[in-house]
């Protein structure tokens, strides 16, 4: 068992990627995720890996496409505006059924926005901003330890399902320092008979491509892909419940928002309000079933997010009218204090939110 | 603490995330009990977690802060205000300089080196945390030390051991780092001048580590 070290969230992602066997990183610097690239630049040359600062985000994601085609574990990372640039590549990865780990350490938007933390790329990640019918696995860490653990898990799920896993963090999660235990775990690996590794004249050639000349073929691929997505929705949902046994005011929050919510819930309990939280760890697949079940015991649900009510829509769909769903949010790089969340809990408990 | 001989200017540099800013804040508060103090934020690398976060604490203690007007804003630009020259030119105040991490951060210091050398009343202290992932050993820390010296053109004069594990820091965390820190001291021929210790461990560690600087941490809301 390794000693704990004090790491930034961004560094934890980078180190965990190396433990997962990733030896190819392509990226382009942007605040607040640049430490991932900086860490890779220092470590990759020492362990025989490739760190490459591409000429742009678009170039980097297409390098990911290339390496993934050969069956190697590969990643890129960026922050919100950079993720917009990568979005074409995300659609191509999906269309070619290629595994990849993509990290988005979100900052305020839209446009150039700002460099302070935000969660406003929820739609981009969970509804998929690129063209075509596709999904990505979206993982939302809420501690530096989870930044590491979910990175390893993300690589494994990407390989297992041949698709992109996205780590959806935010500037504060990327920059904050916490003690971490980086375990030298045996990472699960998967056979990749589809990889373009050379036929050696022993097998038919593999082609990695997202172009289909026959529409009927393309339809078949899309339907098959959605069968796969269905099985992921059935088997891979992850969430954590906090003080939910008797909760009447149910907060739904992920990442940084869940940390503030936790403190607000403890304060609400001290005031005699039965508050609790469902923390989605996978944002896609979204924990619909547990939210639907808990909506039965809830007086109200509150979507606590650093965006303008993006996740709130998924909470409403999951609650399906069984209880009112309110929004508690800050945006533009601002973070709510626990007192602000507590005020919303109190309002909801008193019978409604202004 | 009476034995500590503060030079007029104290520079804090070291590897990325070693705790320089937090040390700078606490050192400024300690020094402000004796002299007028100016604290300068020379971090051109990291736009998060800045000296400016402690603005109100400084105001209360009568400490002057010179920082980029863009610190903690959305303008991600490495800027240093012209007012920064006061640190070298106005010799009536003591000054603490919070230098950015690693060699990249130390580049900005170069501009002030001729004046610092001419006055020759400064300490440049290497802040070490042996629980950071890229500097677990004295050899790793020495490498960073040499890179910083090459980048800014100044030599370190001492070491602050700031080994910690954030909120999980125990007395053992600090004590177990002493061996590497002493190795670094031997390799670099520099004294360990202070030990940064979170305030609630200060009594437990008193007398067991060099010159404790008790650290109050910035409150967190999450």
Give the name of the CATH architecture of the largest domain in chain A: 3-Layer(aba) Sandwich
- Give the helix tally of chain A: 12
Mean pLDDT of chain B: 92
Class derived from helix and strand content of chain B: alpha/beta
Element-level helix/strand string of chain B: EHEHEHEHHEHEHHEHE
Mean pLDDT of chain A: 96
Rg calc of chain A: 21 Å
pLDDT < 50 runs, ≥5 residues of chain B: none
How would the blueprint of this fold be written?
The complex is a heterodimer of chains A (354) and B (222).
Chain A (H helix, E strand, L loop, with lengths): L4 E4 H11 L4 E4 L6 H10 L6 E4 L3 H13 L4 E5 L1 H16 L4 E7 L15 H7 L8 E3 L4 H18 L2 E7 H5 L1 E4 L34 H21 L3 E4 L6 E5 L1 H16 L4 E6 L1 E3 L3 H7 L5 E6 L4 H10 L5 E5 L8 H12 L5
Parallel strand pairs in A: 2-3, 2-4, 4-5, 5-7, 6-7, 10-11, 10-13, 13-14
Antiparallel strand pairs in A: 1-8, 6-12, 9-11
Chain B lengths: L8 E6 L5 H12 L5 E6 L12 H7 L2 E3 L19 H4 L4 E6 L2 H5 L6 H7 L2 E7 L9 H15 L5 E4 L9 H5 L2 H11 L3 E7 L3 H4 L6 E4 L7
Parallel strand pairs in B: 1-4, 1-5, 2-3, 2-4, 5-6, 6-7, 7-8
Helix pairs in contact in B: 6-8
Describe the structure.
The complex is a heterodimer of chains A (354) and B (222). Chain A is α/β, with parallel strands linked by helices and 354 residues long. Chain A has two domains: 5-235, Rossmann fold (3-Layer(aba) Sandwich), CATH 3.40.50.970; 239-349, Rossmann fold. Helix content of chain A is 41%, strand content 19%. Chain A has twelve helices and 14 strands. Chain A has helices at residues 9-19, 34-43, 57-69, 80-95, 122-128, 144-161, 171-175, 215-235, 255-270, 288-294, 310-319, 338-349, and strands spanning 5-8, 24-27, 50-53, 74-78, 100-106, 137-139, 164-170, 177-180, 239-242, 249-253, 275-280, 282-284, 300-305, 325-329. Chain A has a seven-stranded mixed beta sheet with strand order 3-2-4-5-7-6-12, sandwiched between helices. In chain A, strands 9-11-10-13-14 form a five-stranded mixed beta sheet, sandwiched between helices. In chain A, helix 6 (144-161) links the parallel strand 6 (137-139) and strand 7. Chain A is globular and about 70 Å long. Chain B is of the alpha/beta class. Chain B has one domain (9-215): P-loop containing nucleotide triphosphate hydrolases (Rossmann fold, 3-Layer(aba) Sandwich). Helix content of chain B is 32%, strand content 19%.
């Amino acid at each position: 068992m390794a000693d704990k070290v004090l790491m930034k969230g961004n560094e934890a992602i980078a180190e965990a990627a190396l433990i997962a066997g990733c030896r190819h990183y392509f990226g382009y610097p942007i605040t607040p995720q640049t430490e991932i690239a900086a860490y890779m630049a220092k470590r990759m040359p020492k362990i025989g890996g490739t760190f490459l600062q591409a000429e742009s985000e678009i170039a980097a994601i297409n390098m990911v496409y290339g390496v993934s085609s050969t069956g190697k574990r590969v990643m890129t990372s960026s922050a919100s505006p950079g993720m917009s640039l990568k979005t074409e590549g995300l659609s191509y990865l999906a269309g070619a059924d290629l595994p990849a780990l993509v990290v988005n350490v979100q900052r305020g938007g839209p446009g150039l926005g700002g460099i302070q933390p935000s969660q406003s790329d929820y739609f981009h990640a969970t509804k998929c901003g690129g063209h075509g019918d596709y999904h990505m696995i979206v993982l939302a860490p809420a501690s530096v330890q989870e930044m590491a653990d979910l990175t390893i898990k993300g690589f494994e799920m990407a390989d297992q399902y041949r698709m992109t896993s996205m780590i959806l963090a935010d500037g504060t999660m990327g920059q904050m320092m916490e003690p971490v235990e980086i375990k030298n775990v045996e990472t699960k690996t998967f056979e990749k008979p589809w990889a373009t590794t050379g036929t050696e004249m022993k097998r038919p050639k593999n082609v990695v491509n997202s172009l289909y000349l026959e529409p009927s073929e393309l339809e078949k691929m899309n339907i098959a892909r959605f069968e796969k997505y269905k099985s992921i929705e059935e088997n891979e949902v992850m969430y954590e419940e906090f003080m939910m046994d008797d909760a009447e005011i149910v907060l739904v929050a992920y990442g940084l928002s869940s940390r503030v919510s936790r403190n607000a819930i403890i304060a609400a309990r001290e005031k005699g309000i039965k508050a609790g939280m469902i923390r989605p760890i996978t944002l896609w697949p979204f924990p619909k079933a547990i939210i639907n079940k808990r909506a039965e015991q809830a007086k109200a649900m509150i979507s606590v997010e650093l965006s303008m009510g993006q996740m709130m829509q998924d909470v409403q769909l999951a609650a399906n009218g069984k209880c009112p769903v309110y929004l508690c949010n800050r945006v533009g790089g601002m973070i709510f204090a626990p007192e602000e969340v507590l005020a919303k809990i109190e309002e909801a408990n008193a019978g409604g939110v202004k | 603490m009476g034995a500590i001989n503060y030079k007029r200017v104290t520079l804090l540099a070291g590897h990325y995330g070693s705790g320089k800013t937090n040390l700078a804040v606490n050192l400024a508060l300690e020094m402000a009990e004796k002299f007028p103090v100016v604290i300068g934020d020379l971090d051109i690398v990291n736009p998060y977690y800045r000296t400016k976060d402690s603005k109100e604490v400084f105001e209360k203690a009568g400490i002057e802060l010179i920082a980029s007007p863009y610190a903690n804003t959305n303008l991600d630009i490495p800027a240093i205000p012209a007012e920064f020259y006061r640190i070298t030119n106005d010799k009536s105040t003591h000054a603490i300089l919070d230098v950015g991490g690693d060699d990249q951060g130390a580049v900005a210091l170069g501009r002030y080196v001729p004046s610092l050398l001419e006055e020759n009343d400064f300490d440049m202290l290497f802040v070490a945390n042996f629980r950071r992932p890229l500097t677990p050993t004295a050899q790793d820390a020495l490498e960073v030390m040499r890179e910083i010296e090459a980048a800014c053109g100044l030599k370190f004069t001492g070491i602050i051991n700031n080994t910690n594990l954030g909120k999980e820091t125990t007395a053992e965390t600090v004590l177990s780092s002493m061996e590497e820190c002493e190795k670094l001291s031997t390799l670099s021929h520099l004294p360990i001048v202070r030990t940064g210790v979170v305030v609630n461990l200060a009594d437990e560690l008193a007398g067991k580590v060099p010159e404790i600087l008790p650290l109050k941490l910035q409150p967190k809301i999450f």
